[in-house]
Amino acid sequence: MSGKHYKGPEVSCCIKYFIFGFNIIFWLLGVAFLGIGLWAWSEKGVLSNISSITDMGGFDPVWLFIVVGGVMFILGFAGCIGALRENTFLLKFFSVFLGIIFFLELTAGVLAFVFKDWIKDQLNFFINNNIRAYRDDIDLQNLIDFTQEYWECCGAFGADDWNLNIYFNCTDTNASRERCGVPFSCCTNDPAEDVINTQCGYDVRAKAESEQQNFIYIKGCVPQFEKWLQDNLTVVAGIFIGVALLQVRGIC
């Protein structure tokens, strides 16, 4: 491995092996994410027909595993080898890359605050576009269901956004059994039920709005996401800064 090495014991042993241990876990997680992403694409037949990536109308969640896994793999490898061999080039690469990610995260946060209405419109467009494609891909379906269950929301700004989906819309010409309904992930949890009732959202939007809140989440996912971001952004940024400082200390 080329690169400038320290000639003396300038790096603390504790910091060195802490960075090494952290990064080897980070690297293994990257390998796992990449493996899951490639396996999912293999199951869908994407690897044998690359052009099929663009066939889906909505967002393919497998991209999250591929991109995140790739970044984690590169960063984890650089940090792991750099810490173990005290290679300043790899450690600086790791820290600079980490700094760039943090800078982009900070910039995104500032832009999201300044262009709040535009970001909200884009998020609304993104969610509604994926609502239309809800039945097109099982991975997308699972992602939407997880999001709605985790944030206790339904649709982008409300349950009526599910009118955009051909299976759930309330038009008279819709012959689907799910007409005027919502996915089960919109339903409020019933402590008495041990097994998920996947039909709990049937016909629920045919009821009066005052009754709907007894069966499904009324809040949309956009405002719930905003609330989650406000509650957790400080914690995430703090962890990120802490790791970056440890890396810088290990180099200097």
Q: Any idea what the radius of gyration is?
A: 23 Å
The DSSP helix count reads: 7
Strand content: under 5%
Low-confidence stretches: 1-9
Q: How do the SSEs run, as a string of H and E?
A: HHHHHHH
Give the distance, in angstroms, between the N- and C-terminal Cα atoms. 20 Å
Q: Can you summarize the main beta sheet? A: none
Write a structural description.
The longest helix has 32 residues. The chain is 59% helix and 0% strand. The N terminus is likely disordered. The protein contains 7 helices and no strands. Helix 2 runs antiparallel to helix 3 and helix 3 runs antiparallel to helix 7. 24% of the residues are buried.
Would you kindly provide a brief summary of this structure?
By secondary structure, this protein is mainly α. The protein has helices at about 15-45, 60-85, 90-115, 115-130, 140-150, 210, 220-250. It has 7 helices and no strands.
